[in-house]
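Homework help thread (please don't just give me the answer)

Our assignment gives two proteins as sequence + C-alpha cell strings and asks us to describe the second one. The first is just a warm-up. Here they are:
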Amino acid sequence: MSLFVIGDLHLSFGVPDKPMDIFGGWKNYQSILKDNWIKMINEQDTIVIAGDVSWGMSLLQSKADFDFLNNLPGKKIILKGNHDYWWTTLKKMETFFSENKFDTLNILHNNHYEYENYGICGTRGWVNMPGESSDAKVLAREVQRLETSIQSALKAEKEPIVFLHYPPIYNNDYNYDILEILHKYHIKRCYYGHIHGRKGHIYAFQGIYEDTHMYMISSDYLQFVPEKIL
C-alpha cells in the first residue's frame, strides 16, 4: 500500500474543445497518464490529485472525466484547483459521486484523510501570480480551510502532510499567510501543482523553506507519471 500524488490532470473527455495537447509536452497526455497509472498503482494504493482535475464547467459535464478516474486503480483524494469550475458544495459533490457509483473518488475540503500514521490535508491555496488580482477574502478563506484540515488530522493524532494547488512560493512571490500556517504546525512536507511549461517550472521553488520541504507535482513536470511519496 503506497501513497502517490499528481496535479493538474486537465481531463477533457466531456469537453473535447479543451484539448491540452495543443501545448508542448501534452501530446496524448490522457493515454500516457492512464498507461503510467496502471503500471504503478494498484487497488490498495492512494493517490492525491492536487487540483485542476477536469475542464468540465459542471459536475455533469465532468462526468466522463470522473468515470475515467474512477476506473483507474486506487483510492483518489481530490482537492480544488483554479480551473475546477465544476466544484460545488461538499454535499452536492459527494451525492453526485454516490449516485454515479464513483466509489473511489473522495473530496478533500475542510477535512483530512488518514494514511497509516499520516493525515492527508490541503486546500486550493492562493498566491499573487502575474495577471491575477490579490483578493484578501479568498486568501483568508483558503488559510482557514488549510488550518481546519491540519487541525482535523492533529485531532486524530496523525502527522499532517499538506497538498495545495497554488505554490506557496513562486520565483520572488511568497504567500506568507499560507507559509505561516505551514510554520505554525511544523509541516514537514508540502506538495503543489499549478505551474506549467519549462519557463514556468524553472521559477517553481523546490527545497526547504524554514522546516517545510516543498515539491512541485504538476503533471507535465512529472511527465504524467504519478509521484510515489510514501
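The one we have to describe:
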Amino acid sequence: MLQRLTAFLFLAAAALGQKTPIAWTAAEQPIYARIKTLRDVPDDQRGAVTRELAGQIHRLPAAKNKLTLANGLAGLSTEGDFGHDTLQEVATVLADTLREQAAASPESTPDDPYAELAQLIWYEHVQVSLDSPQLKAALARLNADDRQRQSADFTLTDLQGHSWTLQQLRGKVVLVNFWATWCPPCRKEMPDLEALYQRFRDQGLVVLAISDEEDAKVRPFIAGKKYSYPVLLDPDRKVNKLFAVEGIPKSFVYDRAGKLIAQSIDMRTRGQFLAMLSQAGLK
C-alpha cells in the first residue's frame, strides 16, 4: 500500500486473492467509478459523498467485491478533514463487511482490510463492534510500531548537504513527514506545511520532510515549489522501514522532550496540523 488510490485500483484483486480482473456487478460498477474519482470531489463536498458511498456499499449483498469497495473507500476517507462522523460510518461499513466475509469464507478473508480498519480505530479513534483475531493482531502491530517510533533515531542529509539527527533535536518541536513527488495527497498538504513552518520556526518548529526518491527527482520538484523546510533523502528506505511507513503521506510530531505526541496516517489539512502541533505547545 504505497498510495491509497493506486492500491485500490491495482492491488484490490490481489489483496482479495483474485488472479483475474474484477468483474463488477451492475450495482457495484457505479460505486467503483465514484471511488476512483473521489479525489476530484471538492473538499467541502467530499465528506457527504463519502458517507453516501458508505451507505451504498452497506446495502450491497455480501461478496468479495463489497469488501474491495469498503476497503478502498476506507483508504481514501482519511485524506483530509471530512469529519469524525464520516470516518465512523466508513469504519462501521468496513467492519460489518468483514464480519459478513468472515462468516461466508473464514479461511480466505485477506489481512489488508483488517489493517485498514485497525488504523481507523487506532489513529482516528472510531469504534466498531468486531471480535476478530485478525483485527486484534493488526492493532497489536500498530501498538508495536508506535513503540518503535517513540525510540527511533536517524541521521539523514537534506538537499543542501546538511545532516539532521532526530535525537539531537531535543528542545525543538519536530514534525517528521514522509512524502513523495508522485503522491497527490502529499503534494496537497505541502503548502500548509510550508505555511506552518514559516509561522512557527522561530518558536522552535523543525519540519523534516523525508522522501525515498532519488535526488534527481526530488531536487527539481522542491526548487519549483520553493519550499524552505528541510527535505531529506532516504533512497534505501531505512528510515521509512524504521517508522513502519507503508503508505504516504504520514506525519509524526515530537515535542521538545522528544516524546511522540501526535501522528497522522494520511494527508492533513492546515487545521489538522495545527491541532497536532498544539499538543506540543505551538499555538
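TA reply:
I won't write it for you, but here's a hint about the kind of observation we're looking for: The two ends are 34 Å apart (CA to CA).
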